[in-house]
Structure formats: structure tokens, C-alpha cells
Amino acid sequence: MLSQQIALFAIYYKTKDLKQKAELMEKSHNFLISLKNMPLRVEKIFFEKPVFLDKRVKRYIQEAKHFYETRSGKSLSYILTHSQTLLKDLDRVVYEYQKESERQTNELVKKEQFILILTLLALLIEALFIFRPAIKKIEEYMKQLFDEKMFEEAIVNSSPVAIIAVDEEMKVNVFNQNAKKIFGFEKEEMRDKNSLKNIIPEKYYEAHLKGFTNFIKSGILKHDNKPLELEGKRKNGEIFPIRVSFGTTTLNDKKIVIANIEDIQLEKEKDKILLQQSRIAALGEMIGNIAHQWRQPLNAIKIVASGLKMRKKTGLLKMEDIDKDIEKIMNYTDYLSQTIDDFRNFFKQDKTKEKFNVLDVAKRALSLVEASYEHHNIKTVFEYDQNMEYFYVGYPNELAQVFLNILNNAKDVLIEKNIKDKVVKISLAQTKEKLVVEICDNGGGVEDSIMVKIFDPYFTTKHKAQGTGMGLYMSKQIIEKHFHGFLSVRNKKFTIENKELYGACFKIELLFPQNEN
Question: Are residues 120 and 218 in the same domain?
Fold first, then answer.
């Protein structure tokens, strides 16, 4: 039970008990290998190839101590996967002890009675004081390992995530209860070599197979312990989103891949609802922007129409004037129509990823707030390399929403703080690994108390009638979950036209596809 308790205490981080059980297990093992008159076969099992039982037991204890000190996931995997083989080899030790005892007894039968009696007496004493305690200790140790195996299965099956372990031959060795619950398959149905096809969508299977083959050859797992968002397949054929992290270990010199899998379908549905809420909140901002966008052309149409009416009354209206004014009105209505298309396209949800120019998306987002910015005398400055093409593969409308949320946030801050010369700077930069967009305002920065909560859902410094607190939260969710990038904010100094300004800078980092899974 010692190593069982070690596994249990490791799982639940009961470090004090874990340390005590590891030390007790070490003391018991040291007693066992210190016994005198150890049979040669037993000695080989403990100290020679291929078994090296002494070395493996000490490694087992060492991994337990290492987990106590570092909380290493690999140490925990080692503890869980090696108990069964230890149990098997200790059983061999018991068998060799018994076999050695029988051999010695048969040899004594052939000797003279007096010597036999003396030898039997000596052997009896030896058995009483050495072999019997040793065998008893080994039997207890075996029972501990056997119980430990049963307990390990209980721990794995009680895990809140699906745990699947696959060996070098792509055979599933571990398929816990939560894996059964998520995917719908029984453990027995996953025993075949090609059973992974049951739970991996067909369009991803070849990529999984390639990655697994590379790991077997190189021993290097590309995404070791990194959470990835992929897709799984249920028994009924349903494709659903999962979050998976991979770990590795070895068992009998064979590589093992362990996958921890979460069903994130409900989480994705919740994200969709929050995204829709964010879009609805943004719609309120858009209505204000549309009002600013339409005010000038509507006034112009009114002036042209009034002019036509006045000239008609005074008899000064000429046919060529009518044609010119009608053309002006048509130009204004075209502008209004284009504005409607721009706003409608903004709220159109992207279905699939596409290649797009990030600079164009930033300019399109700015055009949606341009009239509002002009109305509030906010100057905008773009900074980018004109020789650079800022292409990226993703969801352009969702990125436009992120830009719009940040631009509206900057506008609100500048108005609220009544900044005299209001400025927003948008800069783009690109490396081999990522594309970076930074949006800065000169509103004096974000207070420390607000900085730590600025991306929290429903957090806002505005009145409830003016904001929902979802804009920046959803912006971060979009960048991190849909683009696998990063969104952060900090206060910093920046320069425009040799003038030093200070304020909040939102930094968007988009990793290029070769740096993603």
C-alpha cells in the first residue's frame, strides 16, 4: 500500500504524508537487499540486467521524492505506470527464494544423518530468522504493489478529464471512465491497434499519425505539456471541440504518450453567447458612429434639395443645374449606401479562416469610428512599413471587432479625461514569428487597480447605461482562442512628431501558422 498512498498523496498534494510514505518504502527496500545469504538468482534479479530490480525500486522512490519537491508531472506518470512491473518482478524474487529453499533441502537429504540434522537445525534457524521474515516482507511488498495497481486505476478513473495512454504500437493501454463518458466507447472497444481512428476525425488522423511517428523516432514530442484546442469524434460520429495536453513517459524501455483531454463544447457555446453579447454591445457604439457618419451627407442632401426648391421659386433653375444637383445627391446616397454595407459587413460572422491584410482591417475599423473621432477632435496616426505586406490567415471580421473595441475604449477615455490634444496611434510591426499591432492613446494611462481587472468580464468604469464591460474581455478571448495570440495592455511613453506622449497601449500579437499547431 505504500506506493499506492504515495500516488494518492501526490495526486492531492498531501506533501507531508507523501514524504513519510516514500521514506518508509525506502527503509523497507534497504532491509530487503541487506539480507545475508541471498540466492544468486535473487541477486541477479536485484542487481543485474535485464531486470535491475534494485535500481528500479530506488528510481521509483526517487521519483516519489522528486514529485514531493517539484510537483513534476513526469514523476507522477512514472509512479502510476511502473507499479505493475515492480509487482511482477518481486513475485519472481519470492519464487526464487522458495526454489532455493527446496534445492538446499534436497541436497541435505543426500548427506549423513548427523550432518543432515545439524544442517537442518542450522537451516531451520536460518529459515526462522532470515528467510521467513524476508519472504513475509516480500509478500507484504507484493501485496502493496498489487493493491497499488488497483488504486492507481481508481485514481485514473476518478480524474475529471479523459486520460488516454498509447504505446509505441499505437495500442491504447489506458482509457479511463471520463474518456468513456466523453467519446462513448468502452475500454474493450479501444484495444485494437487502429482504435484511435474511433476518436480522431478522419481529416486529422494523418497529421496525428505523422506526429506520433516522429515522436517514436526522435523521442521529442513537439507539443509536450502544451494545451492545444483540437477536435474529437464521439461514437455516434459527432465532431466536437476538445482541449488536449500531451505528456510522455517510458515503460520497459518503451515510449508512452499520455493525453489529458477536456470536452470544451459547452465552453465554446458559452463563448459564442458572450461574443454575441459583445456584438450587441458594440451595436450601440455603432449606432452612435452611424449618426456621426451620416450627419454630414444628410445635411448636404438637404442643402442641395433646398437650393433646387429656392431656385425653382425664383425662376433661376436651369436644366444643367438640375442634372448637377441630382448627381450630387446620388453621390451622397451612394456614400450612405456604402456606409450601410460597411457596418453590415462588420457584424457578419466569419465562417472559415481566410487570408487578409491586417493593415486593411485596421483601416476599415478606423473608418467606422472616423466620423465620431472627427466630431471629438481625436487625431489618428498610423505607423507601419510601407514595403511590408501584413498578411495573416484568420477571421478578419473578428479582428476588426477587436480593433473597434480598443478604438472605442480609447475614445471614451480621451473624452472622459477631457484631454486637450487627443491622439490615438496605431502601429504595425512584423517578424518571422509574429505580427504585432499596438494601439496607444495619450489619455494618461490605466490605474493599477483597474489594470489587473481590465480584461475581466462585465468589468467597466462606465455607467451601466453606457457600457457592459464585455468589449475588452471578448477582445482578449478572440485573440487568444480564435487567433492563438496574445492581447495585453501597459502604460508607456510614445512619440508623435517629436512630441512625447503617455498613455495606455494595447498590444496584439498574432503568431504565424508555422508557430501554431
Answer: no
Q: Which CATH number do you get for residue 201?
A: 3.30.450.20
Q: Please indicate, yes or no, whether the overall pTM of this predicted structure exceeds 0.70.
A: no
Do the beta carbons of residue 384 and residue 430 sit within 8 Å?
A: no
Decide if 170 contacts 104 (C-beta within 8 A).
no
pLDDT (tens digit, 9 = 90+) per residue, 251-293?
777 777 878 888 888 877 777 776 666 666 666 666 666 666 6
Residue 284's φ and ψ, nearest 5 degrees, are -60, -45
Could you write out the DSSP letters of every residue in 439-508? EEE-S----HHHHTTTTSTT--SS-TTT--S-HHHHHHHIIIIIS--EEEEEEEEEEETTEEEEEEEEEE
Our CA dihedral for 346, 350, 354, 357, rounded to 10 degrees, sits at 20
The answer on 178 and 128 residing in a single domain is no
Name the H helices within 354-447.
358-375, 396-416
Distances (CA, A) of 94 to 39, 56, 251, 289: 11, 17, 23, 83
The gap between the terminal CA atoms of the chain, to the nearest Å, is: 41
- Let me know the angle formed at the C-alpha of 383 by 416 and 483, rounded to the nearest 5 degrees: 80
SS3 44: helix
pLDDT tens for 411-468 read 989 999 999 899 999 999 999 999 999 999 999 998 888 888 888 876 666 544 344 5
Q: Which domain holds residue 218?
A: 162-263
Residue with cell 510614445: 494
Q: CB count, 10 Å around CB of 443?
A: 24
